[in-house]
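FW: tagging you since you asked about this chain on Friday. Here's the raw sequence from the shared folder, copied in full. Didn't touch anything.
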Amino acid sequence: MSKLGNLGARLHRGEISYDFIGHRKLWYGISILITITAILGLAVRGLNMGIDFQGGAVFTTEKTSVSVSQAEDYAKEASGHDAVVQKLGNGTLRIQIAGMDTQQSDQIKTDLAKDFKVDPETIAADLVGPSWGDQIANKAWQGLAIFMVLVVIYLAIAFEWRMAIAALVALIHDITITVGIYALVGFEVTPGTVIGLLTILGYSLYDTVVVFDSLKEQTKDITKQNRWTYSDIANRSINGTLVRSINTTVVALLPVAGLLFIGGGFLGAGTLNDISLSLFVGLAAGAYSSIFIATPLVADLKEREPAMKALRKRVLAKRAQASVEEEMADARPVSDEPDDDAAPAVVGPRTQPASRGRGRGRPSGKRR
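HL: got it, structure written out here
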C-alpha cells in the first residue's frame, strides 16, 4: 500500500506519467469496438424486460420440493409463456410470467396448484397490467433524459461546453455498454435496474468532474507560457488523479461484487442481480470512460481553438530549438590539448613575494 501511495504522489507531482492523451486513438478504437458489440447484443437478443415494464403476473408458492426446472416447465405449460423461476431462501418459489393476459391468472393459478399438488389458496398472485408497465417504462426514460439535460447544463456552467459534451459522450458510452451487457447476459430488467443505471451515472460523473476540476485549475493563463500544450496539461491532470480514481472505483466495486457473485450466485438471491449487475458493469465502464474517453475528447476539442493552435505551435518551436541546442552541445568536440593562451603552469619550488618575508625576525612583544 505504501508503494501505491508513493506511486500516486509521484504521479501527482509529475515525476512520472503515462501518455494517455497521446494514445487516445487506441482508447477510442477499444471503446467503439465494445460499444458495437453491446449494440449488436442488444439488437440480436434484446432486453429481458420484467413484468413492471410489460405487464404479467408473479406467483409465490409455499415451501415445496419442486425443482426450479420443473416449475419452469409447469408455468410454461399453464400460461404458454416463458417463466422466470427463482427459489427463495425459505424454500418457496417465485414464478414470474411476463407478457401474459392478467385475466388468465386464475386459471394459471389453478393449473399450477394442480401441478404442485397444493391448495390454490396457498399460491399468492400479484398482477401488473400492460398499461402500468408502459407508464413505468416511460417514466424511466423521462427520468434518464432529464438527468442528462441537467448534467449538461451544470457542467457547461461550472466548466465549459466542451467538457459538458465530453461528459455526455462518456455517459452515453457507459449506458450503452451496461445495457448491452444486460442483453448478452439475459438478466431481467426491473426498476432496480433503472436505479442502478442512475447510480452508476453519478459515479461516472464523479470521476470525470475530479479530472475536469484539476484540468480547469491547471489551465488558467495557459496561453501566457510556452512550455506545455493543452494536451500536455490534460495528461498531467489524468495522471495526477489516476490513483485516486482507481482507489475510489475498487472500493465501490468490492461490495457490489459481493452482491452480484456471492448474493446472487452462491446464495441464490436472484432479486439482487438486477441492480448489482448494472452497478458492477456501470462502475467499471464509468471509471474507464472518465480516464480514456472524457478527458482525451476535451483535449481534442480544445486543441481546435485558434489560441490553442498558436500555443501548440510556440511550444513545438521552442522544443525543437531546445533539441537543436542540445544536439549541438553534445556534438561539440572536447580537446585534451593545452590551450596556448592559457597561463603556463608553475613548475618547481614556488618563489614567495618579498612582502611575505617582510617582518620576519622581528622581536615580538612591546617596545622598550
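FW: The chain has a mean pLDDT of 79.
HL: agreed, and Strands lie at 48-49, 56-60, 83-87, 93-98, 124-128, 188-189.
FW: great, closing this out.
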